[in-house]
Amino acid sequence: xxxxxxxxxxxxxxxxxxxVRRLAARHGVTxxxxxxxxxxxxxxxxxxxxxxxxxxxxxVIRTPEDYRDVTYRYLMDCAAEGAIYVEVMSSPDHxxxxxxxxxxxxxxxxxxIEDARRESGIEGRIIVTCVxxxxxERGVEVARQVVAxxxxxxxxxxxxxxxxxxxxxxxxAAFAIVHEAGLSCTVHAGEVAGxxxxxxxxxxxxxxxxxxxxxxxxxxxxxREIARRGIVLEVCPGSNIATGVYGSYDEHPLPALxxxxxxxxxxxxxPPYFDTTIGREYDHAAEVFGLDETALRNITLxxxxxxxxDEETRQRLRQKVIA
Length: 323
Description:
By secondary structure, this protein is an alpha/beta fold. The protein has 14 helices and eight strands.
């Protein structure tokens, strides 16, 4: 089994329908009709509807125990598919909306990572994210929380949310706070919005990785710049097809990104919503894009090299890939 690594997965979006139903029962919550389809999967039909269902499902993740269960279950599922390292993106804003403190939210995620590592050997880290459409001031508040309550497993900061709300420059203060505190940074760009989003992010924020970044393929000069600068793209093909960024795998630019010399990783994004897993992403890369074992191992090595970890951990993980 090829060792795998994942850099781009939203923690709340990793909770399976089964786990969401179990957490709803734990808290006596009745989920709205239409949250699931007849087969029991999450039901949504366009990007905005996906965001709505995502928020509904996330609303049952309410306590440190809940966050532990979501994190543990996801990492154990990844380990079963050969993953040796996973970074999960946490959203304190989702937790805060349900009355859970940043500290309580973090406590649960850390417990899940530690329990999964103890049982499977998988390594995990946390990227705390702010939500773009909630605005720059809230982004600064999240950044201050991260810096005020440091934890060795919190190694990164990022931003998700509506890519067409505000600009990356609006969030320079938030990113400066965490960057100056020594955290590495990533940001969603070039998914729903085009190459201009990627250019704006690279110009304004201290990032060397981009969440998605695939729309850069529409601008050859930008693609060359990304390759020259060694910017790592957290590519999520299954997500891009499911959300309609591309109509089919034939249209997806992963081969063009690789041909241009871009540093690319494979990721699942919000796996149960897009009927994918990190294992399926590697399988699809082989079956659809024709990547052989060497190419897939190199993608894992790219992820390990770009991971937000200390050098001792990085070298230990590399050895698992090249052994």
